[in-house]
């Protein structure tokens, strides 16, 4: 068999994601789907700060929480691929499988951080969109419990964290709140959320992501907080 023909045969046996990653310039495919995520999905569900995540994507030393960040990355790529795909495309599934595989390699019950809450929350929504309601329900349950363990449902006025950090915590909590409430109504299942009297997280601010980096606006955020 000619070498070129053998190479083509090997290429056809490779998963679609591997084909694209091997033939495209380094990082180009991931960047395209990351762009799709922030253009198509993030505008409705702003759980991840775009500028921070892009910086982490390009600079490995900025990535928080080790393996957990890779789970979030592949989940974002899966949603990005899904948002621009069609019924015949399964590229998003390969990213989802990588996220799921990485998730199985860590101890979810002994690991808790904002990055993992972001990943679990997005995974729950992705699974539901891919007609896996029970899988999505399980991811969401983990996200709810972890969010509460991290105190996202509470305000800590004396905690000296940035406007951006405080805003992301609120966005995550109300994302968890909305998704769990919606899933309970859709599937007729019990709500996992705490009682109103134990929640005092403030609502998210009606601002763009980049506003939190402006000194004058940061002062305004502190007043609103």
Helix and strand sequence: HHHHHHHHHH
Distance between the termini: 69 Å
Residues in β-strands, percent: under 5%
Mean pLDDT: 84
Low-pLDDT stretches are 1-14, 215-220
In total, how many beta strands?
Answer: 0
Number of helices: 10
Quick synopsis:
It contains ten helices and no strands. It is an all-alpha fold.
Can you put this structure into words, describing what you see?
With 225 residues, the protein is an all-alpha fold. The protein has helices at residues 3-13, 16-23, 28-41, 50-58, 67-84, 91-104, 114-129, 133-149, 163-187, 215-224. The termini are far apart. The chain is globular and about 45 Å long. It contains ten helices and no strands.
Task: Give the helix/strand layout.
Elements (H helix, E strand, L loop, with lengths): L2 H11 L2 H8 L4 H14 L8 H9 L8 H18 L6 H14 L9 H16 L3 H17 L13 H25 L27 H10 L1
Helix pairs in contact: 3-5, 5-6, 5-7, 7-8, 7-9, 8-9
Q: Keywords, please?
A:
225 residues, 0% strand
